[in-house]
Design brief:
Length: 256
């Protein structure tokens, strides 16, 4: 198993550890391409990346970013559209050049064509240098739900009932949560040169365990990451508590 696993004490330390790793990788490229995820998990990572930028340890002036996914059908400017979330949580906080930040279009007249265009844009940028990922409680990455083929590409997909339930907290009610999305495929995600997955809290422990310790299976989309050679999971102790150190090689613990 190729995946490196770093275990820290809490979500803040997850963010700090992941951000330091990401900044080091970005610093190796003249015009880095960052893959960004939404959700609560990467927020501490963005906060620490912002701190690194403010203190002069990270230059983002030539960084471009591609988001993983977007809901289909939310009105332009909707506070919970991933375009709005990315503007708020990533572009503004990291002071990225907004013209270099891309989010799939969930309102395109021709969604299939927009998906192909998004793939082409990633490819013509040179590809993702470092992809940040969260993980859903059902093991999804991006919005690739259980059952998604590991060679899937950017496409329109249905959200599972469990994911809609998990994300209902961001909407007035469950019925307001969109039923469809545009998401990079698992095959698209696996083309990133490096991947850093962040997870914290007990609710993610089962998904993390399946991703790392079960044989790769579409039942757990994140288990596809076992087929990539440069993946790091940065976890807090709660998210890592079901892992068996004896079955992980190499596994690095860095509890503080
Ligand atoms: C959403 C996003 C995923 C994210 C997941 C987990 O479904 N599409 O990219 O990883 O939620 O979210 P959170 O980090 O809030 O638990």
């Amino acid at each position: 198993m190729n995946i490196s696993v770093l275990v820290t004490g809490n979500a803040l330390q997850v963010g700090e550890t992941a951000a330091n790793l990401i900044a080091a990788h970005l610093g190796l490229r003249p015009s880095p391409i960052l893959g960004i995820a939404t959700g609560s998990s990467p927020l501490t990572t963005y906060a620490h990346l912002a701190q690194l930028r403010r203190s002069g340890h990270l230059d983002v002036s030539r960084t471009s970013a591609f988001a993983l996914d977007e809901y289909v059908g939310l009105a332009a400017g909707h506070r919970q559209s991933y375009r709005s979330v990315v503007d708020r949580e990533v572009t503004t906080r990291l002071a990225l050049d907004p013209t270099r930040v891309f989010v799939p279009d969930g309102n395109a007249d021709n969604l299939d064509a927009a998906c192909l265009d998004y793939e082409a844009a990633i490819r013509s940028s040179g590809g993702i240098d470092v992809q940040i990922l969260g993980i859903g409680t059902n093991g999804h990455i991006g919005f690739n739900e259980p059952g998604t083929a590991f060679n899937s590409r950017t496409r329109v997909a249905e959200l599972s009932a469990s994911t809609r339930g998990d994300n209902a907290c961001y909407f007035p009610s469950l019925s307001d949560v969109p039923t469809r999305c545009v998401t990079q495929g698992i095959g698209t995600i696996l083309e990133a040169r490096r991947i850093v997955l962040v997870a914290s809290g007990e609710a993610k422990a089962r998904a993390v365990e399946q991703a790392l310790q079960s044989a790769p299976d579409t039942a757990c989309p994140a288990s596809a990451l076992q087929g990539h050679s440069r993946v790091t999971f940065v976890l807090d102790t709660a998210a890592a508590h079901l892992l068996n150190p004896a079955t992980l090689a190499p596994m690095q613990h860095s509890s503080r």
